[in-house]
Every structure is written in structure tokens, then in C-alpha cells.
Design a protein that fits this description.
about 50% helix, mainly alpha, two-stranded antiparallel ribbon, two-stranded antiparallel sheet, elongated, Arc Repressor Mutant, subunit A, single chain, about 300 residues
Length: about 300
């Protein structure tokens, strides 16, 4: 019985698709070993090209077309594959957003169709901010008040459309007094879109954070940056501490019985600042660079 090949529309990572396709195809077509893939791509003297691509090497436009031919992708699948490669290799938030929108539009798998309203919610940072803000202030739908209350400010039209979207998604509702208030409801998305939607939202939040850092506020705020060198074990300990800290923050918010007076962004990033995993010779740990801004207007 012929093994079913993976559906490209189920993927948001072209490398994962290539890996799974090669494994599935090899089960019934021995030409599709990893080395054989190199030959099929027109690289008879290479044994590692396919492995290099799967592990993160960038793929050029010319080789995208070679992969399309080798994988025998139909026209619509080929178009999706091209957009997927561009999305995964995008080097700026703007590029990622452009190609992500293309993927949503091109996806023809019924199981993977994304609710456009859900996409709109995660696309802009201020939808979640307005939802949180409505828990702080009493508002019956005055878009101007909401637009000017956010930092950075948004347009009145954006605030009006955000209210409409939040109502459609059931994330806010009207009280008996007519005020708009958040509904305790969790958003859920399918496996295809979840990671990429959250990533788009996080990119938006980072842009908001950079704006807040540049435009000093009179309200309490804190910015802290630390550059460290640690072992894998040390990294795992830091990860656990950060997760524990976020849990404690959630607990503080949940137990806070005093009226909230504003909404805060809390963004945490922990990522490698070096490209190599293990240096050839031991390196002396540098002095920790710790830069912090704290307090009113800092």
C-alpha cells in the first residue's frame, strides 16, 4: 500500500514539510534518500545539501523551483510552497506579515482555514490592550476615549473597529448598565496558525515596547537588559525561573483586589546572542552587562 504523502497545507514551516515528505516518499521510493534528494535536485556531487536545508540553510529562488519539480507539486501547491519559503526566510516583521497573509489566503485545506476575525485579533497589539483597558475604565463604546487612553495612541477608527471585533469574538459584552467589559473567555486556534499568530502578536508587542522606551512616560515603568554567558544547564534553570516568575505575576494579578488604574505590557525575551553552540576553546565569561531603567519617567 502506497504511503500517503504529507499535505503541504498542514505546514507553517517548509523545512518540516521537506523532512516529512522525504521520510514518507522514501518508504516506497528508495530514490528519495537524503543523499538521493541531492541527486534529484541536480547536485550529484553533494551529499549534505538536503540535510543543510532541513537544518536551517537558506534556500535560493532557483532551488525552490527545483524542489517544486522534485516534489511534483501542483500549481496551487507550488504557489503555497513559494510563499511558505519566503515567510520562513523573511528578515523583517513587515515581510513576515506580508507572506503570512499570503499563506492564509492560499491555504486550501478545509481543516486549516483560519477565522479571519481571529487573524485580525492577533494581527494588532491594541485589540488585547483595549480588552484589558475595558476592565480598568467604564466605557459604553466611546472609541475616542479608548484610542487616546492607549500608549501609544491609536486612531479613533482603529478603536471603533476593535470594539466591533471584540464583540464579534465574544471577548467583551455589555453589562446591565451598558458598559463594555471583558468576558472571561480563552481564544483557541488550530495547530497550523497558533504559533505563527502568536509570533505576529509578539512582534507587534516588541514594536510597542521600543516606542515606549524611546518616548519616556511620566508613569512608572521599568526596562532592564542583561547579557550573560551560561551553560545549557544554566539556561534551563533561567528558563524555569522565568516561567515561575510569570506564574507569580499571574497570581499577583488574580489576587489583586484593589481597583486597577492602568494596563501594563510585560514582555520577556531570552534568546542567543551568539551563533555557535560550543566554542572550540573555553571562553572566559564576560562581565555581565546590566542596563536598567526604572521609576517615573525613566
Amino acid at each position: 500500500m502506497k504511503t500517503q504523502l504529507p499535505n503541504i497545507y498542514d505546514y507553517n514551516d517548509f523545512r518540516a514539510y521537506l523532512r516529512d515528505y522525504q521520510r514518507a516518499r522514501f518508504l516506497f521510493d528508495k530514490r528519495f534518500s537524503r543523499t538521493g534528494m541531492c541527486r534529484l535536485l541536480g547536485l550529484p556531487n553533494s551529499r549534505s545539501y538536503f540535510n543543510d536545508i532541513v537544518k536551517g540553510k537558506k534556500i535560493t529562488a532557483a532551488y525552490v523551483e527545483r524542489f517544486i519539480r522534485v516534489l511534483e507539486l501542483a500549481n496551487s501547491e507550488a504557489t503555497f510552497f513559494r510563499a511558505l519559503v519566503k515567510f520562513n526566510q523573511a528578515e523583517s516583521p513587515g515581510e513576515r506579515e506580508l507572506y503570512f497573509e499570503q499563506l492564509i489566503r492560499l491555504n486550501r485545506s478545509p481543516k486549516k482555514v483560519l477565522d479571519r476575525r481571529m487573524y485580525k485579533y492577533y494581527k494588532e497589539w491594541y485589540h488585547s490592550a483595549i480588552r484589558a483597558l475595558l476592565d480598568v475604565i467604564d466605557c459604553k463604546g466611546d472609541a475616542k476615549t479608548l484610542a487616546h487612553a492607549l500608549n501609544p495612541r491609536i486612531t479613533v477608527r482603529e478603536a471603533r473597529l476593535s470594539i466591533k471585533l471584540l464583540l464579534e469574538l465574544g471577548l467583551i459584552s455589555r453589562t446591565q448598565e451598558g458598559f463594555l467589559k471583558p468576558v472571561d473567555k480563552c481564544l483557541t486556534t488550530g495547530p497550523y496558525v497558533q504559533d505563527q499568530l502568536i509570533r505576529q502578536y509578539q512582534l507587534q508587542c516588541l514594536q510597542v515596547a521600543s516606542t515606549a522606551l524611546i518616548n519616556q512616560s511620566k508613569h512608572p515603568q521599568m526596562f532592564s537588559t542583561k547579557l550573560v554567558s551560561v551553560s545549557p544547564q544554566g539556561f534551563r534553570l533561567i528558563e524555569r525561573q522565568l516561567s515561575k516568575f510569570l506564574g507569580e505575576v499571574s497570581s499577583i494579578v488574580h489576587k489583586d483586589t484593589d481597583p486597577a488604574d492602568r494596563v501594563y505590557h510585560l514582555d520577556i525575551q531570552l534568546f542567543p546572542a551568539s551563533r555557535f553552540d560550543t566554542p572550540s576553546t573555553p571562553l572566559k565569561k564576560p562581565d555581565t552587562n546590566n542596563h536598567k531603567q526604572k521609576g517615573k519617567g525613566a
